[in-house]
């Protein structure tokens, strides 16, 4: 079954003091911003294979360098809709499903998410209404959907270790089969930085 799948990345604009705030004690506001910019650029280099469209939804307007990177790597930059994280994700998923058979939502905080992982997600989505890429901290780094229900996004304890479990519970409640990919790690806290350095990503403070 061949699906048209649109890829949607939700990302914070690299603005000092407003991004990677939990890393500011280790990196400072400028270093945390530099890390966000590096990880955003890394995510933009993900291969386009398997996707009909690719969008980056920023929480603020892009600067010239971010716009140039998006143009270079074939992404369309869009400003995020209003609302809390769940409302924004639901709106983005609804807009994506209006123009494609399926949507895939990711962030830019997971350096271990690569082209092979995206292809595994695409394959799983061709056989299931939903696919999830779990995060080691109890959230998720990827959500793929062929249909939409607000239940997946409302009253969700975002930013906690309960998100993945509650999302799976609600998928079962809806009666939607779903596939879980291998868990990946993301970068949120100072203790994640040595792991990031093992991939060759270092920030000079």
Structural notes for this entry:
The chain is α/β, with parallel strands linked by helices and 205 residues long. The protein has one domain: Spore Coat Polysaccharide Biosynthesis Protein SpsA, Chain A. The chain is 36% helix and 18% strand. The protein contains six helices and seven strands, in the order βαβαβαβαββαβα. The chain has a seven-stranded mixed beta sheet with strand order 3-2-1-4-6-5-7, with helices on both faces. It is globular. The chain starts with a strand and ends in an 8-residue tail after the last helix. 31% of the residues are buried. The mean pLDDT is 94. InterPro entries: Nucleotide-diphossugar_trans, Trfase_1_rSAM/seldom-assoc. This is Glycosyltransferase.
Number of domains: 1
- Indicate the CATH topology: Spore Coat Polysaccharide Biosynthesis Protein SpsA, Chain A
What portion of residues is helical? Answer: 25-40%
Portion in beta strands: 15-25%
How many beta-strand elements? 7
Mind telling me which CATH architecture this is?
Alpha-Beta Complex
């Amino acid at each position: 079954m061949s699906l048209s799948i649109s890829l949607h990345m939700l990302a914070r604009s690299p603005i000092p003091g407003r991004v990677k705030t939990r890393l500011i004690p280790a990196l400072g506001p400028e270093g945390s911003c530099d890390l966000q910019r590096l990880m955003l650029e890394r995510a933009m280099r993900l291969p386009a294979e398997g996707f009909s469209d690719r969008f980056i939804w920023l929480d603020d307007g892009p600067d010239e360098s971010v716009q140039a990177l998006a143009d270079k790597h074939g992404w369309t930059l869009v400003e995020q809709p209003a609302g809390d994280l769940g409302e924004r994700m639901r709106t983005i998923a609804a807009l994506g499903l209006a123009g494609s058979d399926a949507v895939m939502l990711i962030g830019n905080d997971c350096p271990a998410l690569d082209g092979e992982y995206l292809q595994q997600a695409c394959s799983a989505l061709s056989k299931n209404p939903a696919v999830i890429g779990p995060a080691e901290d109890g959230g998720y780094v990827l959500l793929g959907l062929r249909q939409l229900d607000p239940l997946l996004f409302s009253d969700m304890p975002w930013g906690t270790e309960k998100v993945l479990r509650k999302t799976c519970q609600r998928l079962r409640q809806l009666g939607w089969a779903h596939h879980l990919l291998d868990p990946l790690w993301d970068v949120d806290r100072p203790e994640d930085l040595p792991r990031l350095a093992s991939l060759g990503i270092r920030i000079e403070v």
